[in-house]
Design a protein that fits this description.
alpha/beta; 6-stranded parallel sheet; single chain; 3-stranded antiparallel sheet
């Protein structure tokens, strides 16, 4: 049987993008076979290029979000630069932008304007808070939206709210933009028309707040911050082991508690003791419950504790740091790591989570240097080398 091509082969995406939300969305499209043309500023490009130098001199955010793209650097404030973007868009299937609120409309690059001019185009506007309402013009960085969406209020310990350790608002918006593009392309396949797609970081992350939000709206009580513990289940936490590790376990029902009492704690009578026999009792007596589990696991190494919990049929995990994740045996066994090219040489990268058996593997292209493809892209829209040189000389492209 012939291999199926990547599903977005033949789709061209033009993106005027920066930071994480739009770049991560378009990277998903590139991984699935789309050609993604990244439009960057001539003075340093996407500002995420300057966040750090952790990836052998390149910024880790940029490496993560921008593989497989072609970079063209130009000045959108110059009418000639803006005209070049319009020429690229004329041949594109998808346009994505996450400029500051109102900036795209002033340039005529908002979804409504572009879709009116190009009926088959799918055009995506990604914003912080949406195009209307009192927050429309507020600056929207990931941490700020995490606060506005309530994520920080449910994350952390009882005494200290904390933001998520990843850019959750950016990622949420990116994934809804990605799925919105796919849905709009399916619709175009049946109707012949593209159309606008709008995604806001606040809308996206508030949707992800579903359980605690609904719990509060319908039950009236916001879930407590409990660190690694669970607000309504016990035992459910991370416990230290004799070798300095930490093992997290979750007991989901009273049958599991009885197995834990017998096979891990070594005190079968706890399984039927009224102080611990039901989840409600264990939650009410959480401190003592945790003390019993901690004492049992604290006498074992992490490997021993995990093995004993597995034998007892108790859900468990090792609390890993990021170096341990990079060497995770499950990821290694499933061959999830690849290398992508860059201006500083090959860089390790994780295969995208979407696997399409029977088809080509995800296209994990190189991380582009700023303006690496400017010349080729301008020649492709009909410009001569002399015209390109003139634009470079005037500082319109780089």
């Amino acid at each position: 049987m012939d291999q199926l091509p990547l599903p977005l082969e033949g789709i061209t995406v033009v993106a005027v993008e920066q930071a994480v939300a739009a770049p991560f969305a378009t990277r998903q499209l590139a991984d699935l076979g789309a050609r993604v043309i990244k439009v960057e500023r001539i003075d340093g490009g996407d500002f995420a290029r300057g966040y750090d130098t952790a990836a052998r001199g390149l910024a880790s955010h940029f490496v993560w979000c921008n593989r497989g793209k072609e970079s063209i650097a130009l000045d959108l404030k110059d009418p000639r630069g803006l005209d070049l973007v319009r020429r690229l868009v004329a041949d594109a299937d998808v346009f994505v932008q996450n400029l500051a609120q109102g900036a795209a409309a002033r340039l005529g690059l908002d979804a409504a304007t572009l879709c009116a001019a190009h009926p088959r185009l799918v055009a995506v506007d990604i914003s912080g808070y949406g195009s209307s309402g009192p927050y429309a013009d507020k600056r929207a960085y990931d941490m700020l939206v995490q606060c506005e969406a309530g994520l920080v209020s449910v994350t952390g310990t009882p005494g200290q709210p904390v933001k998520a350790g990843i850019p959750a608002a950016d990622i949420a918006a990116a994934m809804y933009a990605f799925s919105g593009v796919l849905a709009a392309l399916v619709r175009r396949g049946t109707t012949g028309r593209g159309g606008p797609v709008e995604v806001s970081m606040l809308d996206a992350l508030t949707e992800w707040m579903g359980h605690p939000l609904h719990h509060t709206m319908h039950g009236g009580t916001p879930p407590a911050r409990t660190g690694l513990a669970h607000a309504v289940i016990a035992p459910y936490d991370a416990y230290p082991t004799a070798d300095g590790g930490r093992v997290l376990l979750s007991v989901q029902n009273d049958r599991e508690w009885r197995r834990l009492a017998e096979q891990v704690i070594g005190r079968p009578a706890l399984g039927t003791d009224p102080a611990y026999a039901t989840n409600a009792a264990r939650v009410a007596n959480r401190a003592r419950t945790d003390e019993l589990v901690a004492k049992a696991l604290g006498a074992l190494t992490a490997d021993e504790a995990l093995a004993r919990l597995e034998r007892a049929g108790i859900a468990c995990a090792r609390l890993r740091d990021l170096r341990e994740v990079a060497g995770h045996p499950q990821l290694a066994a499933r061959e999830r790591w690849r290398e992508v090219g860059s201006q500083v040489g090959p860089l390790r990268a994780l295969l995208p989570p979407i696997t399409l058996p029977g088809g080509d593997e995800a296209r994990m292209g190189d991380v582009p240097a700023l303006g690496q493809h400017t010349g080729a892209l301008l020649r492709a829209v009909g410009m001569t080398d002399a015209e390109i040189a003139a634009l470079r000389g005037d500082g319109v492209v780089a």
